[in-house]
Amino acid sequence: MTGQAISLLETLLGKAGVLRDAADLVRYAADAAGPGADRPLAVLRPASTEQTAEAVAICAAAGLAMVPQGGRTGLSAGAVPPAGSVVISVERMRGVVALDRDAMTLTAWAGTPLQQIQEEAQRQGLDYPVDIGARGTASIGGTVATNAGGIRVLRHGMTRRHVIGLEVVLADGTILSRMGGLAKDNAGYDLCQPFIGSEGTLGIITRIMLRLCPHEPLSAVALLMVEDHAAALECLAQARIRFGERLSAFEGMWPDYMDAICRTWRLASDPFPGQRGFCVLVELRGRDAAQLDGFDDWLGELLERGLVQDGILARSQEDERRLWALREAVGDVDAPMGPHISFDLSVSLCHLGRFCAACDAALILLPQAGRVIKVGHLRDGNVHLLVAHDGSDKAARLISEAVYDVVRAYRGSVTAEHGVGRIKRDWLAACRDPAELAVMRAIKRALDPQGLMNPGAVID
Ligand SMILES: Cc1cc2nc3c(=O)[nH]c(=O)nc-3n(C[C@H](O)[C@H](O)[C@H](O)COP(=O)(O)OP(=O)(O)OC[C@H]3O[C@@H](n4cnc5c(N)ncnc54)[C@H](O)[C@@H]3O)c2cc1C
Hints:
Elements: H1 2-13, E1 18-19, H2 22-27, E2 30-31, E3 34-35, E4 43-44, H3 49-62, E5 65-69, E6 85-89, E7 96-100, E8 105-109, H4 114-123, E9 126-127, H5 140-145, H6 153-156, E10 163-170, E11 175-178, E12 203-211, E13 213-214, E14 218-226, H7 229-243, E15 247-253, H8 255-264, E16 278-286, H9 295-305, E17 310-313, H10 317-328, H11 334-337, E18 340-346, H12 352-364, E19 369-377, E20 382-389, H13 393-409, H14 434-447
Parallel strand pairs: 4-6, 5-6
Antiparallel strand pairs: 1-4, 2-3, 7-8, 8-12, 9-13, 10-11, 10-12, 14-16, 14-17, 15-16, 15-19, 18-20, 19-20
Flavin-adenine dinucleotide binds next to β5, α5 and β12.
């Protein structure tokens, strides 16, 4: 049955559309969370929505499990294929299909890299404001499937806020198209919503219509060193009052993170040599210089009042790039850190300090836990907590239990933005109650009764 299905798929998709070489199967068996233990039976690369629908119908008839893939930059192993499954990659469906300047919308194929969307919008004086470190490789479909957050959530919200239309191939091959682009449309359930953040478990997204915003080409960036997270939150409160909508990023780098990247691993040069405090990266964006006025004065006032201990104001784009490199160095810590768990947690802002202290306290008691570093999107209450360990399953389990117990106690989330994937599936109950889990399972059963669409991800 499987062999027959693969032959049918080869006939449908042609040579470029079905990969079966061992090296390819290894490549498509991993995402940014690491390599999977199994290899897919084949990698399918349809070139259109219709081809995707026909391929899915063949797989469904043969009972073959399907794993949708975009750029494979996901951090939760959601795109890692289990044994006996086929990968359906959207990488051949790429490019911007339409950009409507008046309506400020952009339609693109799901495999289009996020950065290409941003650049095409900017060429028209517009912007797609969702931004993440993996922008050059992550596909727009993957960012919708994971409801990606990133560095500008403070100002623009997560991906969900920008999606106004989707075309999706359901688990039986049916094409669901909500690409009308109406500004107002209240006719029944909004069928786009369940697919945003569904991590490939409900269908394959093939085309997307996005809402754009005016491009703000100018920025002002500063790095502040403050005593602790409480002082950082006070700076945030004042920045929001002073700059309102112009405040576009407010990123937190705990002393343990700064120490690790600047001193231990030298991934970036130390901005405050000989001092070690809590660092905050603040960014304003605007359309003209007047919108950035007052930033220097504000920093001066904070320094004068002693709320900020030291600060660096970027004077050029190169300075801005250097300051952002400190924050983006988190993408380079995997190798020097060795085996570790990368948690993507969120709590209400008012609990953030106590929550981090409680995680630190729980981890100190565990001999299996090594170096701990914390960095995150401060305003969103989103902490990326990285914990080194000896590489054993036991250590990973004990550390996860300790951290997720704290998450439960503070009514936080086990994943702020990276998604549940396969890595966090068994911890979902730490932040979702039985009624919520039952509704999730009911939606999954209704849309994918055979359980073929990305089995093992998000929900069992
Ligand atoms: C350096 C780095 C920085 C990052 N920074 C951030 C950040 O700041 N914020 C953030 O939220 N994430 C971040 N990420 C995580 C990652 O980039 C995002 O999750 C991204 O949205 C994944 O896109 P992708 O195309 O690579 O998806 P993949 O990794 O290929 O897939 C991710 C999930 O989506 C599903 N999927 C992919 N494409 C489709 C589709 N067309 N239809 C249906 N399901 C699909 C997959 O099955 C899988 O479950 C970062 C990753 C890296 C490596």
